[in-house]
């Protein structure tokens, strides 16, 4: 091993919860700020694309398909990204992510002559870019922390809110001034953020004397073979392995193909998978519907015809409130999860988010939309912050990146289907977005129920301790 490699490795060879881990978390936040700030603004370009003769005046549904590809295919590529992140430096994957997003902005704005060409030249590359950013950032951050993983992932996932807070409003103004093509070229300049952020992303390598439950994810070759050889010969391995030995293998070595299949059928994996899948209907539906819903106020022929009109540029600034409260939600909920329970934080965010999404039905002015979307943004950010911690709690070790990617692939369901579902509901009910809001509210309720029933194993003890403390404080006052 070369001296240079030893010096570089010694930088990462730190104990768990070392302060350098926060630099890695911030680098992940910067990547998410760039990627989601751009990707989540796609619906802002919808009206400009629909009225563009060079695209053939595409319909709202055909434009929404591009949004579906951008958001929906990303988790599919996330499985491949999760597989790579256990084997390839996260820094390299983040650089690739940045280059792909930059290329998509320029290819689509220069050569696309239809909505289909926009989908394949920009949206497809944006989805790959998002996948190559999300799994590496979450896995790299998770490798640095044990006790404060909730807070660290909260910092990591706060980037999406930061991007929504300032990138989306800027793009909303640019698209009204210059049209979508020139705006795409201008927003490619934000990719410089990714070049800077990728420098600080790296996995932690445990110090040689450290006794940790999380082994070095880079163990390969002979070391893995030794670990694999320790399986009890009297016990059936592979698909029929007992659950306790399966999770011991997950935590200590890379799995064999049959063991991966067995892991996919565990309650822990299926719960995380369906929680993220159903939540995808809520989150991606919100991302798609917020700007069109707010800007539909005062639209003739709809139930909002008698309401004061709100322009598209002003409607896009709703994402500023959404983004600011996402930042607060990511960090605050992550901190709460670190000091209480990840499951408690997740269920609380789902409950409050579902209630707030239902309140969107009654919003008619800008202030009401801003206040309600702020609460919803807070809750969605909290859910995203806690989700990696829930996955890491059961699947930590050399397979963590792969399992994160496999759970995130569940977002394909919401990413692909949520925008068309919202578009069809809006068309079917004559521009009424109330039914879409009900769908979003239900899609945020179910994941909380799944988490409460299947993953929160010590909830009775947690709730009992909570009420004992409250009753104790009341009796002391009396």
From TrEMBL:
InterPro entries: MFS, MFS_Riboflavin_Transporter, MFS_trans_sf. It is found in: Membrane. Pfam families: MFS_1. It comes from the Eukaryota. It is a multi-pass membrane protein. Keywords: Membrane, Transmembrane, Transmembrane helix, Transport. The chain crosses the membrane at residues 20-38, 65-85, 92-112, 118-139, 151-171, 183-202, 263-291, 318-337, 344-362, 368-390, 402-421, 433-455. GO terms for cellular component: membrane. The keyword Zinc does not apply. One of its GO terms (molecular function) is transmembrane transporter activity. Coiled coil: none annotated. This is Major Facilitator Superfamily, putative. It comes from Angomonas deanei. The lineage of its organism: Eukaryota, Discoba, Euglenozoa, Kinetoplastea, Metakinetoplastina.
């Amino acid at each position: 091993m070369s001296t240079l490699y030893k010096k570089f490795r010694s930088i990462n060879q730190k104990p768990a919860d070392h302060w350098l881990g926060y630099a890695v978390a911030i680098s992940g936040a910067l990547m998410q700020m760039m990627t989601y700030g751009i990707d989540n603004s796609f619906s802002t370009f919808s009206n400009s694309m629909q009225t563009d003769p060079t695209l053939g005046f595409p319909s709202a549904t055909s434009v929404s398909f591009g949004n579906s590809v951008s958001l929906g295919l990303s988790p599919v590529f996330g499985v491949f990204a999760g597989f790579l992140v256990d084997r390839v430096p996260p820094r390299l994957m983040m650089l690739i992510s940045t280059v792909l997003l930059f290329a998509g902005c320029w290819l689509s704005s220069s050569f696309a002559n239809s909505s289909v060409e926009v989908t394949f030249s920009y949206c497809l590359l944006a989805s790959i870019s998002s996948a190559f950013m999300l799994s590496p950032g979450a896995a790299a951050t998770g490798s640095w922390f044990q006790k404060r993983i909730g807070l660290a992932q909260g910092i990591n996932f706060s980037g999406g809110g930061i991007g929504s807070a300032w990138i989306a409003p800027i793009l909303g103004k640019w698209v009204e001034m210059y049209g979508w093509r020139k705006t795409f070229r201008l927003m490619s300049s934000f990719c410089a953020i990714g070049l800077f952020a990728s420098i600080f992303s790296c996995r932690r390598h445990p110090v040689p004397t450290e006794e940790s439950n999380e082994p070095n994810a880079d163990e390969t070759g002979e070391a893995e073979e030794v670990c694999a050889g320790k399986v009890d010969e009297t016990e059936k391995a592979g698909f029929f392995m007992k659950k306790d030995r399966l999770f011991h293998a997950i935590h200590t070595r890379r799995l064999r193909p049959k063991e991966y299949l067995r892991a996919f059928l565990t309650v822990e994996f299926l719960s995380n998978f369906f929680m993220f899948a159903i939540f995808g209907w809520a989150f991606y539906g919100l991302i798609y519907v917020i700007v069109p819903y707010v800007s539909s106020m005062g639209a003739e022929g709809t139930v909002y015809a008698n309401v004061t009109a709100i322009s598209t540029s002003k409607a896009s600034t709703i994402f500023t409130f959404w983004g600011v409260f996402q930042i607060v939600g990511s960090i605050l909920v992550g901190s709460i999860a670190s000091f209480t329970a990840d499951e408690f934080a997740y269920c609380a965010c789902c409950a409050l988010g579902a209630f707030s999404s239902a309140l969107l039905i009654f919003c008619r002015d800008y202030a009401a939309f801003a206040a309600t979307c702020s609460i919803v943004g807070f809750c969605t950010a909290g859910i995203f912050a806690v989700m990696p911690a829930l996955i890491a709690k059961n699947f930590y070790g050399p397979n963590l990146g792969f399992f994160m990617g496999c759970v995130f692939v569940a977002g394909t369901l919401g990413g692909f289907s949520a925008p068309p579902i919202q578009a069809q509901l809006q068309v079917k009910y004559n521009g009424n977005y109330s039914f879409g809001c009900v769908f979003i509210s239900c899609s945020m309720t179910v994941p909380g129920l799944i988490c409460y029933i299947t993953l929160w194993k010590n909830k009775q003890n947690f709730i009992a301790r909570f009420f004992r403390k409250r009753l104790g404080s009341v009796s002391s006052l009396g």
